[in-house]
Design a protein that fits this description.
The radius of gyration is 34 Å and the shape is elongated. By secondary structure, the chain is α+β, with helices and mostly antiparallel strands. About 8% of the residues have low confidence. Strand 4 and strand 5 form a beta hairpin. A 3-stranded antiparallel β-sheet has the order 1-2-3, with no helix packed on it. A 3-stranded antiparallel β-sheet has the order 4-5-6, with no helix packed on it. It contains 2 helices and 6 strands, in the order ααββββββ. The chain has a domain of 52 residues. The longest helix is centred in the N-terminal third of the chain and has 23 residues.
């Protein structure tokens, strides 16, 4: 039986590739697992808690005044614990933005079902800015809020 050289060449190439893979698997050293090195700035962040003067507990002397309330009080009460610091935000009606059209000075938005331009008021807030994906409103108490609009 005679073996055709063209058929032998077809089987030779995969055999040589398989042999090279087996040799490389035994010849190369074992791969080491890859681990990212820790960035240097994280060490500085970790040291911030160590180098502070207090032991992590908030130490307040005197009283803290709520500067956002708009009310001036002559007599302020000292805080009993740190939970008193967190003030509940004033209840504001929700602002719903249905549509935005940004066109320079002609920009407008549909806010709470009403067509509004920059500077117009709607009872509890004033529209102060219109951008491509957001509007900014200023409530009567002076707080500004940016409401992002998701484009579909």
């Amino acid at each position: 039986m005679k073996l055709d050289p063209k058929i032998a060449a077809l089987f030779a190439a995969p055999f040589l590739a398989l042999s090279a893979c087996v040799i490389m698997a035994f010849a190369l050293p074992e791969p080491k697992p890859f681990a990212l090195s820790r960035p240097e700035f994280l060490g500085y962040i970790d040291q911030l808690g160590i180098s502070s003067e207090n032991d992590g507990r908030a130490a307040f002397s005197g009283s803290i005044r709520n500067v956002f309330s708009g009310e001036e009080s002559a007599e302020e009460e000292p805080l009993e614990n740190t939970a008193d610091i967190i003030a509940q935000p004033a209840a504001r009606p929700p602002v719903s933005v249905s549509m935005l059209v940004e066109s320079g000075a002609k920009s407008f938005g549909i806010v709470n079902g009403k067509k509004m331009r920059v500077g117009e008021s709607s009872g509890s807030f004033t529209l102060t800015a219109i951008r491509k994906n957001s509007v900014t409103v200023r409530y009567l108490d002076g707080i500004e809020e940016t409401i992002n609009v998701k484009a579909y």
